[in-house]
Write a structure and sequence with these properties.
There is one protein chain. By secondary structure, the protein is mainly α. About 80% of the residues lie in helices and about 0% in strands. It is elongated.
Length: about 260
């Protein structure tokens, strides 16, 4: 074999080795990208399944409930595109698609007040996660200003209502312990919280109901001399009652930086 042929063979071999290395690196990079995407989709699916399953029936307005389901179905569609033979994903897509159809056909259900402090805390955390996701979608142009405002207003109303639920639970616990003045204090905080937004929302019926309860309790406290003074708590709690949404929004903004819905 001539030296020219040997040199040509060596060059050809080097070219093949370089091409093989390039192809191998490209395939490895694509494999890692695929794995990262699968992990991200798995996290997103689990997050939205958590939202779907975490709220009590009828708690979310239909628009918000539909948004959560559509995001879940979109994530499932993307995951199935990567794993078309994954039977678990296919079955989950069918299940949640059916549930979404049922939601779209179901009549509006009146929200049931929360009566468990632990549940109130859990629901507030779920709402913070949902609020962060909606803010992200708006910042990325996936939601219009009108849609963002609509969803944001709905979450704000829910935050106010579960904060009122929390005050009412505390008031009932105070009453069960014979602390009438403390119960009046919590009912008054609930009323102030509703009155703050009564110009934009129709909370007059709830405010009137709370007024009636407070008036009856005040009469009872005067007659029985019920204990439970709240003089040391009043100022701090009054500030808390006037800023529930502001505090929620600040916490949601902080958690938005750590959100898993990317």
């Amino acid at each position: 074999m001539s030296s020219t042929a040997i040199i040509s063979a060596i060059i050809t071999l080097l070219v093949l080795l370089v091409a093989y290395a390039f192809i191998s690196q490209t395939m490895e990079r694509r494999r890692k990208q695929r794995q990262r995407l699968q992990k991200a989709l798995t996290r997103r699916i689990n997050d939205f399944k958590f939202l779907v399953q975490g709220f009590p029936p009828g708690f979310l307005p239909k628009e918000l409930h539909t948004l959560v389901y559509r995001c879940l179905l979109d994530a499932l569609d993307q995951a199935i595109a990567l794993e078309p033979k994954n039977q678990v994903l296919i079955e989950e897509l069918a299940l949640y698609s059916k549930q979404l159809e049922e939601i779209s056909r179901s009549p509006k259900v009146k929200r049931t007040p929360l009566n468990d402090p632990h549940q109130v805390k859990e629901i507030k955390e779920l709402l913070q996660g949902l609020n962060s996701f909606i803010a992200q979608q708006h910042s990325r142009g996936h939601l219009s200003n009108q849609q963002h405002k609509q969803y944001n207003d709905q979450i704000k109303r829910l935050v106010i209502q579960i904060s009122v639920d929390s005050y009412v639970v505390n008031a009932k616990q105070a009453l069960s312990s014979g602390k009438g003045r403390l119960a009046i204090h919590y009912y008054s905080l609930a009323k102030k919280l509703l009155a703050r937004d009564s110009g934009r929302e129709n909370y007059q019926k709830q405010i009137q109901q709370l007024n009636t309860i407070i008036e009856k309790l005040e009469v009872k406290v005067k007659e029985t001399g019920s204990s439970g003074s709240t003089s040391q708590q009043t100022e701090a709690s009054r500030q808390q009652a006037s800023s529930e949404w502001d505090k929620f929004d600040q916490e949601a903004s902080w958690k938005k930086k750590k959100s898993l819905y990317d």
